[in-house]
Design goal:
With about 375 residues, this protein is an alpha+beta fold. The chain is built from nine helices and 13 strands.
């Protein structure tokens, strides 16, 4: 456990410093980094590595302007970055072995020699087109931050003491393989990827670090001065993607619902997944029950209008509704568009699906749940 904590912290520290040193030397700027630690590969084996999202630019050393890093430079800095990361890692690993912060077990010097003799490789990639927008990057990062070593979708069976699951083919091949592990070995591998208590999988450096948060407004101003047209375009896209106009004509944005927690639960009426948009105490729930029954009947089209009277203290989320258009294919193969009234929460979810180029369905993608009031 001691080595897991120390080595993981060493990965974070050295990878972050390597990026910072290279960007300062080549471009003279302080970049922002979001780092995510992974300890597994597709077959659950121990494979410790760091995923880093790096800003395509940074604040100049005098703090007065934004310096853009050309995306085409990513190939040029690979070798330089690998050499810098190797140097930083070996120096700090040697120091930790010497001071006893990392257990030696008598073979520390041998391992250091083997590591020093190898050529190290760092992968630097430009985001794919679908991930280059702000929401696209959030979607990409959420898969790494929120996920664990395996998702439910990859699990196939657990019969006769054998666990079967799927994994991506290696060496760039398309398709998936089926892996089989004894139940105890599967559990041992799974538990080995649980981080030590108090250790976080994601960290932030540079302009994203906690001490720099008060200066983020200045960073945004510098970016706007350096790329005014790009900032205007992205801002307009974000506002359009995150906005829903409610039935009463008011506007609501997805950012106002950032605190909602999602749980996998199914509506007892139409068996569709739901998302928790608010919480209420037990006694309050009973006071809202009659009102909510009327709301469900309204959403299902059984009554022409919403209830006129609302219970005292009714949560804001239970009284906000919007109209959305849905397209379906009928038996003749023709597309038919219908309009229905849904909660604002569900309308916002559909906007985000569209922004991520996803097709909403009764089975939402991992981490994103649709909502029905029920």
């Amino acid at each position: 456990m001691l080595n897991t904590r120390q080595l993981s912290s060493l990965y974070f520290e050295c990878s972050g410093l390597a990026f910072e040193n290279i960007c300062r030397r080549r471009y003279g700027c302080n970049v922002g980094q979001i780092q995510v630690l992974h300890t597994w590969n597709q077959v659950f084996e121990r494979h410790v590595h760091i995923h880093t999202i790096l800003t395509a630019g940074g604040i100049s050393e005098d703090g007065r302007r934004w310096i853009t890093i050309p995306l085409e430079d990513h190939e040029a800095i690979k070798k330089e970055l690998a050499i810098e990361f190797k140097r930083l890692f070996l120096v700090r690993l040697k120091r930790r072995l010497k001071t006893g912060r990392i257990a030696d077990n008598g073979n520390g010097q041998k391992i250091l020699g083997q590591m020093a003799a190898k050529d190290w490789i760092v992968s630097v990639q430009v985001p794919k087109a679908k991930y280059q927008s702000p929401l696209g990057l959030i979607r990409y990062l959420s898969y790494y931050v929120m996920g664990m070593a395996i998702s439910d979708a990859r699990m196939l069976s657990d019969d006769d003491g054998i666990v079967k699951f799927t994994s991506r083919k290696r060496n760039g091949e398309q398709g998936r393989d089926i892996q089989s592990l004894p139940r105890q070995e599967f559990m041992d591998r799974y538990v080995s990827h649980i981080l030590p208590p108090g250790m976080f999988r994601a960290r932030y450096r540079g302009i994203f670090s906690s001490r720099e948060i008060p200066h983020l407004a200045h960073v945004r101003e510098c970016i706007a001065l350096a790329n005014p047209q790009a900032v205007q375009t992205i801002t307009a896209q974000l506002i359009d993607q995150a906005k829903v106009v409610a039935v009463d004509g008011s506007e609501e944005f997805s950012g106002e619902r950032a605190g909602a927690t999602s749980y996998r639960c199914v509506c007892p009426h139409d068996k569709t997944p739901m998302v928790t948009s608010c919480r209420a105490k037990g006694p309050d729930t009973m006071r809202y029950l009659g009102y909510l029954r009327c709301v469900i009947r309204f959403l299902k089209g059984l009554v022409p209008s919403m209830p006129e009277e609302r219970p005292a203290g009714l949560p804001y989320q239970l009284a906000r509704f919007a109209e959305i258009a849905e397209t379906a294919v009928n038996e003749s193969g023709e597309e038919v568009t219908t309009t229905r009234t849904v909660s604002v929460e569900y309308a916002l979810q559909q906007k985000l699906h569209a922004a991520f180029n996803d097709v909403p369905s009764s089975r939402p993608p991992p981490g994103i749940l649709s909502e029905q009031v029920g």
